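Your task
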Amino acid sequence: MTKKNVSYDDALSEIETILNEIENNDIQIDLLTEKVKRVSFLLETCKTKLLETEKQIEHIFENDIN
């Protein structure tokens, strides 16, 4: 599992690809665990990026109001 910095769009795209593979039974059972771990990592990455973005936007609005 690669731990490199993944963009939100790339992570979302990879999640969609893996989910499609799972839905279509295109993943060998031996690789399923690794794919699920990868999706978990990518979901956490997306969540972190969304929370960071939310905080930055809140900070911008707070500074504009004051």
